[in-house]
Amino acid sequence: MKKMLIFISLILSLSIYLSNYHNVPNDGVNTISIQDFNYVEIIKKTPNKESSVKTSRKESLEDIAKFIDSLDIKSTKKMIDEPKVDYKYDFRFSGKGKSYITFYGNLIRYNGIWYNIGGNIDDKLNSLFDSLAQGI
User: Fold this and answer.
1) Where are the beta strands (DSSP E) in 1-136?
2) What is the pTM of this model?
3) Taking a C-beta distance cutoff of 8 angstroms, is the pair 131, 67 a contact?
4) How far apart are alpha carbons 15 and 2 in whole angstroms?
5) What is the pLDDT of residues 45-80, one digit of tens each?
6) 3-class SS at 28?
């Protein structure tokens, strides 16, 4: 009887842990503020090339924050393996702490947690990257 109660409490604890893990709110992604970081490196990776843009300009940081805040982000609520895509973008933020956002088509990984993005943002990502590259 005692073993059964221990087993049931372990299963219940595991269920609660997993349900909390999969229902992570997306507040952290859409609330990036320029007060939280003072330097960003964006790395664009394609099958044949890798290029990066680094900036600490206030105007560029504001553009990046506005871009991220404009995304329609939803938690995936499931475990995802790293997708196989032709290209991806890595955003590396530094400032009060460090944060990482990786864009894979309509999926992003923010500090290790996966989210879906509503709509296609490839053009917006390319435009943001190109405008930052020209602004250097």
Assistant:
1) 37-45, 50-55, 73-75, 88-95, 98-104, 107-110, 113-117
2) 0.70
3) no
4) 20
5) 988 899 999 999 988 988 888 888 888 887 766 666
6) helix
